[in-house]
Amino acid sequence: MAERGSYAKGVARREEILTAALDVFSREGYRGTSLREVAKQVGVSLPGLMHYFESKEHLLTAILQKRDEVDGESLPSTGDFLDTLIRIMRHNRDVPGLVQLFITLAAAAEDPAHPAHPFFVDRYAAVLPTLAGSIRDRQDAGTARADLDPEHIARVLVALADGIQIQWALDRSVDMAGDIERLWALFEV
Question: Which residue intervals are the DNA-binding region (predicted)?
Fold first, then answer.
């Protein structure tokens, strides 16, 4: 019986750590955040914090997973994932540190042995068909060109979203959501 209570407390502590880390990383970014700062905010030592994660890279990956979970709750889908993508890109202006973390881990996750590799593979496996479905729905509604290949356009839009975040990280005057909207306008009827 005590093990179940300990397990529940451990899960709750891990969630507390992730919530605090999400907050700190959103403000301070990948390079500006010390894991000691996150530990201090939660009231544990650095070894205590790392007790809940296999490595720093596992913690950073968990932060991105938590970010997606929180964004999914605070930016609910309207059913049209293209609109959701644009809302997410607008929201990303307010969390530059998480954009920086995403960019950094995306590059590192190219290595299949990196803990973030499955996160990104799974993310694209979910996002691309969902976005393609939204494009297909717009084609069926007569608002998008019928000659579009929804899977190809979804891949292009996701590539734009990821790439525009890199440009925005270098130049905050870049309008991430606006650029996606302008590209999409080329595909409307």
Answer: 34-53
Lowest-confidence pick of 68-72, 112-116, 150-154 = 68-72
As a 3-state breakdown, the chain gives helix, strand, coil percent values, each rounded to 5, of: 75, 0, 25
Does the pLDDT of residue 73 top 90, yes or no? no
What values do phi and psi take at 188, rounded to 5? -85, 160
- HEC per residue, 52-121: CCCCHHHHHHHHHHHHHHHHHHHCCCCCCHHHHHHHHHHHHCCCHHHHHHHHHHHHHCCCCCCCCHHHHH
**Domain boundaries in the chain?**
55-185
Q: How many CA within 13 A on the CB side of residue 73?
A: 5
Token pair 């991105």 is at which residue?
64
- Let me know if 58 is exposed, middle or buried by CB neighbors in 10 A (0-12, 13-18, 19+): middle
Q: Are 35 and 46 in contact (CB under 8 A)?
A: yes
Specify the pTM.
0.88
> At residue 76, does pLDDT exceed 70?
no
Class of domain 55-185: mainly alpha
1 pLDDT tier (thresholds 50, 70, 90)? very low
pLDDT for 4: 61
